[in-house]
Amino acid sequence: MKKSKIGFISLGCPKNLIDTEIMLNELYTAGYEITPEETEADIIIINTCAFTESAKQESIDTILDAAWLKTNAKCKGLIVTGCMSERYREELKKELPECDAVIGIAAIHDIVEAVKAVEKNKFFEKYGDIDNYDIGGDRLVTTPEYMAYLKIAEGCDNKCAYCAIPSIRGKFRSRTMEDIVKEAKNLEALGVLELTLVAQDTTRYGVDLYGEYKLAELIRKITAETNIPWIRLLYCYPDKITDELVEEIKNNDRVVKYIDMPIQHISENMLKAMNRHGGQAVIKSAVERLRKAVPDITLRTTVITGFPGETEEDFTELCEYLKETRFDRLGAFTYSREEGTPAYDFEDQIDEQIKQDRCDIIMDMQYDINARNNEKKVGKIIKVLCEGFDPVSNTHFGRSAADAPEIDGKVYFTCAKRLPEGKIYNVKITEVLDYDLIGETK
């Protein structure tokens, strides 16, 4: 029997994307053809997200859109994987009968078996032990060849009151340094210039295997074994920003001076209710130590508005801290009430409009902060990783070290000649356009 053409849709975070890339590789190795055209696919695999209500809705809509292709295109089978299939096993089968296979987080290495079953018109489901499965594996990297994500751990032990991740992804488990460094070397061989380290809690890395936080040592090993010029850190928790890590960011020229450190709130009342570790003093200490050691560091954070019990006083305290601290990058999100989390049953749930109004206030404030920060860059020369060229405006575009993939701004720049993408150039900034920068190079 001729093997099916496989189409993939990956939703959610970079950690989910890596799972998609592992499944892609296993199917490709098994001889399946991968097609980027959903209308040409015989089987479509959707790797879902279920972190928040909006993410769940996006996953459901994507499944229904793909199901439409079963009657209006070549698609003969639909496989659902990822967080939604893990979190809502029975509901998914009952409410979305369009699905021909359902695979949990711990069963991504069984994707070939699932496809073979669907090819034979047999329903397939498998889940496995989320606390004990291989979180590594060869990948068919889907990001541009000059950048890639590298997952250093899986799961989470923090148990924040609003978060369902521990029940979906299992307990925190680090990969060995040897395994991670080997993958980093493989990615370098593919041409990667920017390596972004990710996990549910990147700063917890190593404590389960080695008895202490080992992120700084891991970074040193990666830089010793590769020549990748940009190493970026996402999902770092303030209570685990060790002095050793701060020194590594300061002294290692290949660690970009950027750190993503979600604080979620600053009010002690809210931090305690959220079950965030460390409290206000720890957050302030982490910010102060980073900025003192690395004055030019770009600090990114996220905050939640409308968590149950958030008073006007709590919200005002958060706004005042954000005005004072002036994070370089910030995302504000309304609290999403998630089944199975402690906060779901908390009293004093906040009205949706109040949540959104508070979120809008913070983002308006951050827009002004970002504009003033960007104005300071006019006239300066910064390094930019070129990501492409727009022939309509005759402009190149890319990102500086201060901009993470997907979530931060862009740098648009002109040049007298067409430049190849995937290389780092010196760009002189000439003006600001909202969250983006405009410049020129020679």
Rg of Cα set: 22 Å
> What composes the largest sheet?
6 strands, parallel
According to DSSP, the number of beta strands is 19
Characterize the overall form: globular
CATH fold node name of the largest domain: pyruvate-formate lyase- activating enzyme
- Through-space gap between termini: 56 Å
Strand order of the main beta sheet, please?
Answer: 2-1-3-4-5-6
Structural class call reads alpha/beta
The CATH superfamily title of the largest domain: tm_1862 like domain
Number of helices: 14
Range of helix content: 25-40%
Overall tally of domains: 3
Structure write-up:
The strands form four sheets. A six-stranded parallel β-sheet has the order 2-1-3-4-5-6, with helices on both faces. A six-stranded parallel β-sheet has the order 7-10-11-12-13-14. A five-stranded mixed beta barrel has the order 15-16-17-19-18. It has helices spanning 14-29, 53-72, 83-87, 89-95, 111-119, 165-169, 177-189, 207-210, 215-225, 243-251, 268-274, 279-293, 312-325, 352-375; strands at 5-10, 33-34, 43-48, 77-82, 101-103, 124-126, 147-151, 153-154, 173-174, 194-198, 230-233, 255-260, 298-305, 329-334, 381-390, 395-400, 411-414, 424-433, 436-440. Helix 7 (177-189) runs parallel beside helix 9 (215-225). It has three domains: 5-126, Rossmann fold; 147-375, pyruvate-formate lyase- activating enzyme; 381-440, OB fold (Dihydrolipoamide Acetyltransferase, E2P), CATH 2.40.50.140. It is an alpha/beta fold. The mean pLDDT is 95. It is 36% helix and 22% strand.
